């Protein structure tokens, strides 16, 4: 009770909430048909019952408790999508359902299941009918050989089991043998002796076709049926044989005589034909010999021509082969040269890789290092230039301030000077021009101070003095263009320019 029911009952109750949350789900409780013998007593529940069969009674009680548990649990769990089942794993007692198994195996309960066996092997029968009168009233004795077996189709096997279960193989053979002998007797009475003796296969086929439906209704299949022997006790069959034998002997004697006659005639005709053939053969031999000689001469001539042609063809083919050999040698040399070129190209690639590894890569590394140094130097120079620019900017600002101050002072001075010039008029302007002339003359003469010798080229009628005077005469115009002061109004200049004129 504790093992078969209480443990499973507790486990089911503990898992019941989980089963409801996972719905749809099901509970399968293993019961047994032994629950019919169970008796539950609440006072003694959990204790083994007394008596000699206490163990079996305890088992029956536990299975009854399982069935009642399944029924009550199914009632309480209606509408929760949790279904409950009680399963009997064993067989059902008292059932009339039959199970047919062939060529395999099946379960059977000891002391409960009734099992019987029937052989499906081929059975050999020898039906024999003695002194059966034929359609002509001749008594014959016929023996045959039949091969039969029980069919394995489900319906026919059930029929065979119904009729032959509990019987041994010999009993089955006797039933089938009597059926075959009965059909054999009935068919013998409808046939003549000649039909039975001369066409045994047709007789056997007829017996098989007539007997097959009857034995088939017993679940038996006729695999084969043949007639083994047919004989009688009144020498009827031997008399039929004597008549046939005499007719055969008569025909044989006639055939021998006719054959000898035809043989003599044929022998004479053959001799004549042989002589004709011999003469014709000799003639044909002579003709063939003459044709052979002519053909031989023609063949010799043709052979000589073909020999010469073959010799020329051989020499031509030899020259062609030599040419092909030379061409192959050239191709081999070309291939060798290509291979050599490939090797040299690979060597060049290897040397390039080696140069890359030994020269280019270090040079690139060195160039990269120098580039980085140059970049650093560049950054350094940029920073220095920026600092210098900042310095220059500061100096420029200071100088601009100084220049601005000087410009303002100069402007003030020029303002005062302009006022003085305005006050003194033309005389003051002239004084300023005169004060600036030495400086202008110095600036003009500065390039000439670096000249060691001056060569003046002029026309044929000119001289140096006139050229100098011309140059001096152009000075007042240049000064007026620069300063706006007309030097020709100065008395001294007027005098000089007038003398020149």
Characterization of the model:
This protein is an alpha+beta fold and 501 residues long. It is 67% helix and 9% strand. It is built from ten helices and six strands. It has helices at 2-21, 54-76, 154-164, 169-188, 193-198, 200-216, 236-424, 426-445, 464-483, 491-500, and strands at residues 25-30, 82-87, 123-125, 128-133, 139-150, 220-231. Strands 3, 4, 5 and 6 form a four-stranded antiparallel sheet that branches. Strands 1-2 form a two-stranded parallel ribbon. A hairpin with a 5-residue loop joins strand 4 (128-133) and strand 5 (139-150). The longest helix is centred in the middle third of the chain and has 189 residues, at 236-424. The radius of gyration is 76 Å and the shape is elongated.
Task: Please describe the structure with a list of short key phrases separated by commas or semicolons.
single chain, 501 residues, alpha+beta, four-stranded antiparallel sheet, two-stranded parallel sheet, 10 helices, 67% helix, elongated
Question: Element order, helices and strands?
Answer: HEHEEEEHHHHEHHHH
- State the helicity in percent bands: 55-70%
Q: How big is the Rg?
A: 76 Å
Largest sheet: 4 strands, antiparallel
Count all strands and give the number: 6
Which structural class matches the secondary elements? alpha+beta
Total count of helical runs of at least 4 residues: 10
Overview in brief:
With 501 residues, the protein is of the alpha+beta class. It has helices at 2-21, 54-76, 154-164, 169-188, 193-198, 200-216, 236-424, 426-445, 464-483, 491-500; strands spanning 25-30, 82-87, 123-125, 128-133, 139-150, 220-231.
């Amino acid at each position: 009770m504790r093992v078969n029911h209480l443990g499973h009952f507790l486990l089911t109750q503990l898992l019941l909430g989980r089963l409801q949350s996972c719905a749809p789900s099901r509970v399968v409780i293993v019961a047994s048909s032994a629950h019919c013998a169970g008796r539950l007593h609440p006072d003694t529940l959990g204790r083994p019952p007394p008596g000699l069969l206490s163990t079996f009674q305890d088992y029956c009680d536990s299975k009854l408790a399982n069935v009642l548990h399944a029924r009550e649990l199914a009632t309480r769990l209606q509408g929760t999508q949790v279904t409950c089942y009680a399963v009997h794993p064993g067989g059902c007692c008292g059932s009339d359902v039959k199970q047919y198994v062939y060529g395999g195996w099946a379960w059977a309960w000891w002391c409960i299941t009734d099992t019987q066996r029937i052989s499906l092997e081929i059975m050999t029968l020898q039906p024999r009918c003695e002194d059966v009168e034929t359609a002509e009233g001749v008594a014959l004795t016929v023996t045959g050989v039949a091969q039969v077996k029980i069919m394995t189709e489900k319906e026919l096997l059930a029929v065979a089991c119904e009729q032959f279960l509990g019987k041994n193989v010999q009993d089955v053979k006797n039933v089938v043998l009597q059926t075959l002998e009965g059909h054999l007797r009935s068919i013998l009475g409808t046939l003549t002796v000649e039909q039975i003796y001369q066409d045994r296969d047709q007789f056997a086929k007829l017996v098989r076709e007539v007997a097959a439906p009857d034995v088939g209704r017993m679940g038996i299949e006729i695999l084969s049926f043949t007639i083994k022997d047919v004989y009688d006790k009144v020498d009827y069959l031997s008399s039929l044989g004597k008549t046939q034998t005499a007719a055969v002997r008569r025909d044989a004697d006639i055939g021998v005589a006719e054959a000898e006659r035809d043989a003599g005639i044929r022998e004479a005709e053959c001799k004549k034909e042989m002589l004709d053939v011999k003469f014709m053969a000799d003639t044909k031999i002579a003709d063939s010999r003459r044709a052979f000689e002519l053909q031989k001469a023609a063949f010799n001539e043709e052979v000589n021509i073909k020999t010469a042609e073959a010799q020329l063809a051989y020499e031509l083919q030899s020259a062609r082969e030599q040419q092909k050999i030379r061409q192959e040698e050239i191709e081999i040399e070309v291939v060798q040269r290509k291979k050599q070129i490939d090797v040299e190209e690979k060597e060049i690639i290897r040397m390039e890789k080696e140069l890359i590894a030994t020269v280019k890569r270090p040079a690139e590394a060195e160039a990269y290092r120098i580039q980085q140094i140059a970049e650093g130097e560049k950054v350094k120079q940029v920073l220095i230039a920026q600092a210098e620019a900042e310095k220059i900017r500061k100096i420029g600002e200071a100088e601009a301030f100084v220049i601005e101050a000087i410009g303002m002072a100069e402007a003030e001075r020029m303002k005062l000077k302009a006022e003085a010039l305005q006050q003194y008029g033309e005389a003051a302007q002239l004084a300023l021009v005169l004060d600036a002339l030495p400086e202008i003359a110095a600036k003009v003469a500065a390039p000439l101070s670096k000249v060691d010798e001056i060569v003046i080229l002029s026309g044929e009628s000119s001289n140096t003095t006139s050229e100098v005077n011309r140059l001096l005469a152009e000075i007042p115009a240049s000064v007026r263009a620069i300063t706006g002061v007309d030097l020709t109004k100065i008395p001294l200049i007027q005098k000089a320019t007038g003398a020149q004129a």
